[in-house]
Amino acid sequence: MVAVIADPERGRVLAVAGQLPELQMAGSVYFGQGVTEAFGTLLGAELALLRRVAFRRLPDTETHQLRGATWSLDLLSDSAHGEWSLPADLPAEQRPWAEAALLPAPPARPLWQRSGGQAQLLAWLDDELAAQERPRSAAPQIIKHTQISFLARVPTAPGPLYFKAVPGFFRSEVPVTCWLSRELPGAAPPVLAADAEQGFLLLENGGEALNLNVVGWGFPDDQRGTWTPNDSRALLRQVAHLQRASEARLDDLRALGLRERGPQYVLTWLPRLLDGRYFHTAQEGGLSAEEAQRLQAMQPRLQAMLERLAASPVPLTLGHGDLHEGNVLKRQEHFTMIDWSDACITHPFLDANLSYLVPQEHAEAAADAYLDAWKGMLPPAELRALYRAGQQAGELFRALGYIDGIQLGVEDASEWGNVHLTHFRALLNFGSEG
After folding, report:
1. CA 319 to CA 346: how far, in whole Å?
2. How far is CA 66 from each of CA 23, 36, 63, 77, rounded to the nearest angstrom?
3. What's CA 358's distance to the chain center, in Å?
4. Taking CA 372 as the corner, what is the angle to CA 369 and CA 373, rounded to the nearest 5 degrees?
5. Is-contact 182 203, C-beta < 8 A?
6. 47 — phi, psi (to 5°)?
7. Coil, strand, or helix at residue 49?
8. pLDDT at position 68, please?
9. Which InterPro entries does the annotation name (predicted)?
10. Would you say 258 and 173 are in contact if contact means Cβ atoms under 8 Å apart?
11. Which residues lie across from 22 on neighbouring strands?
């Protein structure tokens, strides 16, 4: 892992023995956990995260996956071990990182990725904690520090709280989370304080994240052995309950700024999604020519699925937009959803894909529990077929969360440039299953 500590006024960066400071760490550094502590010890300095300027895969060993991250850090103390150097004096591979860290921050860069920004976040947080007579007992612990959110665990004597900040294009998450917490119990953790203008939320502890790793995204899987079919049923019942409870409140949700992203929305996008411009076939990680051809061949079937969903008696509901195990908390027997950045109004079957939530061996039991909320709207076989169509077409719905969402709002779209391809490939897997 490499650190870039810049002095923009003088156009220089901190170096140690002629190169950027470097160290090795165990565990993931993608979201910034432990980065400032490690480099602070190395350099004898107080530091704050700014942004990750590079992330790359390295050759794995037999026992470890290796990744290289380069973080731009804010120097908060008066000095640090090392010497100040010009980018031109660094090794060639490090010069672009130094030059990037010295550039002025563009308007799209969020507050927490700007010099001095985290001090402003902490000032707001400490004021709110003081007002509630619940001061923090230690420094906040970074959980995520990305272009699309800042999330930290806040230690307090009665127990941890959670502080989240979101950029302008996700600002509706603040009023939406407040409304959900108040009006739909179980949809979001209790909100202790909020600032919609700045995009800040202070949340009560809603429980522990599900650690099942059902999707294979690298989530911990230490709960997998104790997770039962009844847990899967209960989770999907909760999802269905929240969706159905929202049906009569859609006007309230629209007033909060939620977009309608149902089957008609996906249908409007379908020709563009499959015309090749988003396949990235000539780029690293892009679809192969064979994958692209197979996906384009699915267009008539996908159009028919979306038309069936649009014409079905199952009504539009609240949609999470990014519903997966990492956005579900569990406390005892109760579940709570988090991270409503992509909240929208949509067809429930596009949103609730159980393969992102529960182990595959529980799929049938979980689907039965989920579909029980809509029994009577269609014969059972038709309802299940419609749900399967929703799960498949829902991969396009999820892909659009990046193409028509994150990629348009962030400073560096390349970080998210290929993420939608995971959903295209998941759709191909559906197709291969028939």
Report:
1. 6
2. 13, 20, 10, 31
3. 18
4. 110
5. no
6. -130, 160
7. strand
8. 84
9. Aminoglycoside_PTrfase (IPR002575), Kinase-like_dom_sf (IPR011009)
10. no
11. 2
Bridge partner list, 152? 142, 163
Strand stretches in 226-371, DSSP E: 317-319, 328-331, 334-337, 344-346
The first and second tokens of residue 404, run together, are: 């028509």
Q: What is the pLDDT of residue 63?
A: 64
Neighbours of 86 (CB within 10 A): 14
Q: How many helices (H) and strands (E) does the chain have?
A: 14, 15
Which residues touch 19 (CB under 8 Å, ≥6 apart)?
A: 90, 91, 94
Distant-in-sequence contacts of 272-281, Cβ < 8 A, 24+ apart: 273/396, 273/399, 273/400, 273/403, 274/298, 274/299, 274/302, 278/399, 278/403, 278/420, 278/424, 279/421, 279/424, 280/417, 280/418, 280/421
Domains of the chain, CATH where assigned? 2-104 (3.90.79.10), 112-203 (3.30.200.20), 208-432 (3.90.1200.10)
Cα–Cα distance between 351 and 317 in angstroms, integer? 10
Residue 273's DSSP bridge partners are none
Q: What pTM did the predictor assign?
A: 0.93
CB-CB neighbours of 28 under 10 Å: 13
Model pLDDT, residue 193 = 98
| DSSP letter, residue 260 | B
Residue 6 half-sphere exposure, CB side, CA atoms within 13 Å?
Answer: 27
- pLDDT tens-digit readout, 202-225: 999 999 988 888 887 766 666 777
Give the containing element (helix H, strand E) for 182: helix 173-183
pLDDT computed for residue 431 by the predictor: 63
The whole-angstrom separation of Cα 239 and Cα 231 is: 13
Tell me how crowded residue 373 is: count the other CB atoms within 10 A of its CB: 18
The answer to whether the CB of 121 falls within 8 A of the CB of 111 is yes
| 8 Å CB contact between 262 and 396 | no
The DSSP secondary-structure symbol of 343 reads: -
DSSP bridge pairs for 209 = 329
Residue type, 155: P
Distance CA 209, CA 206 (A): 9
Close Cβ partners of 286 (under 8 Å, ≥ 6 residues apart) = 279, 280, 418, 421
Parts of the chain with a pLDDT under 50:
none
- Whether 160 and 153 have beta carbons less than 8 Å apart is answered as yes
DSSP 8-state symbol, 249? G
